[in-house]
Amino acid sequence: MNRVVAALERVTEWIMALMLAVMVALVFGNVVLRYIFNSGIVAAEEIARLMFVWLVFLGATLALRRNQHLGLDFLQARLPASVRRACAVVSHLLMLYALYLFVTGSWTQLLIGTQTYSTVLRFPMAFYAAAGFFPAIAMALTILANLWKILSGDRDAVVPGSAPQGVLVEH
What transmembrane ranges does the database entry give (predicted)? Predict the structure, then answer.
């Protein structure tokens, strides 16, 4: 299972790199075309905007998976291990609730977006909502997996305020 997840992460990284390259090429090309030739690629803005939205949500999903989101855990680090664990359970449940709201809202917007289309390229606006819907499901699964590890006492569980494995903490 870990190999499948690692492969999905690598594929996601490559997709993100490709989207970023296309965005840079489109926006830079459009700037050059506008200032030098007084013309431009009309669809460049729509494509770049759509790719940016997907890039943000895919990046957030990878950051969550790798525990790289910005966080302050100096207060939790001073708590006893059992209280840290309880705080982690509560925070995971709150994150799951927020993602539930996000998924249901994204689903509603996805359905609405199947009936509305972008201005220039006429693609369904559901593509934007899908950028939130699918990564939110992946985030919820990631949080559920870590919550299960916390509740089952797995040593690989990520509990904010606890030292990562292999790191010595001096007091």
Answer: 12-35, 47-65, 86-107, 127-148
